[in-house]
């Protein structure tokens, strides 16, 4: 047998979102109620690549206490895995042995994270919460584990995980544009891993500005849109739960930052890199405030068209450039003179780009 099918998990569950993402990365075909593995050898190779990438990126999926007590032993038995140390071991073993398990559709009570009811409004719509009844077969669980290792980008503190999912688009579009979705997801994942550091997530405006600039510099994105969803998952105790799900949309930021030489986008990344460094060391409140305020004003303008917000963004970046040319400020920030000069120049570039393009006088 050179291929087989994997049933699609219930659409209301986090399991579905993870399986959907994995299907795109693994190149699976899709039918209304199942994913189709057409080439088993290629499927195994791609699974191994997911495992290797997860190791390189040090991705650490966290099972709950109940998962470790009940799920791990039964699933390891199905895989004939003798030694377990992490969820990645399960995926790695599945990649080795899936050809011997194709016809074995044993059902399991899956890990807590896969049982999460993804849509907050489901109960209000009268749909039944299926956590207690949910059962998935071993192949569905493996596909979801692959998706989890692809989607996990960061941990905020000890128990909150950040998952980057596909945009909430119709299944047909996901199928037709899988390669584009995969490339965009990879780029956003890398950018999120960079911009989210430590125990706090930066303000939304700073994060979206960084992600928009990153997409512009990669070259494939020329217009604004919704490029993914970011889910924050609480992983503590004996139950995983979703804290929030937010679309990653650039609003009008791509249009605002786009220029022929991509100088404005590059300047944005330089500014936010400096901001992240200063913020992580709890230095330079004026510097941090100017970046956050200017980013917020730029986002407000991109959404609402408020000329006051645009003026405040341009003048904020201009003030930032002047601040970084003050030797005392640079000393307080513990920033090298060359670095401060480069960051100030980036603020100049961004301020000038916005002022010239949108006819703002400061």
What does this protein structure show overall?
This protein is an alpha+beta fold. Helix content is 56%, strand content 13%. The protein has 15 helices and nine strands. Strands 6-7-8-9 form a four-stranded antiparallel beta sheet. Strands 1-3-2 form a three-stranded antiparallel beta sheet, covered by helices on one side. A hairpin with a 2-residue loop joins strand 8 (226-236) and strand 9 (239-249). The radius of gyration is 23 Å and the shape is elongated.
Question: Strand count, sense and closure of the main sheet?
Answer: 4 strands, antiparallel
Total number of helices: 15
Residue ranges: pLDDT <50 for 5 or more in a row?
A: 120-131
Q: Assess the beta-strand content as a share of residues.
A: 5-15%
Rg, Å, rounded: 23 Å
Query: How are helices and strands ordered from N to C?
Result: EHEEHHHEHEHEEHHHEEHHHHHH
Task: Give the proportion of residues in helices.
Answer: 55-70%
What is the β-strand count?
9
* Mean pLDDT metric: 90
Task: Kindly name the structural category.
Answer: alpha+beta
Shape: elongated
Order of neighbouring strands in the sheet with most strands = 6-7-8-9
* Alpha carbon gap, first and last residue: 69 Å
Topology:
Layout: E1 4-7, H1 14-26, E2 29-31, E3 34-37, H2 40-56, H3 65-79, H4 87-101, E4 107-108, H5 112-115, E5 136-137, H6 138-151, E6 152-156, E7 160-165, H7 171-176, H8 178-195, H9 204-218, E8 226-236, E9 239-249, H10 253-257, H11 263-280, H12 285-304, H13 307-323, H14 327-332, H15 337-357
Antiparallel strand pairs: 1-3, 2-3, 4-5, 6-7, 7-8, 8-9
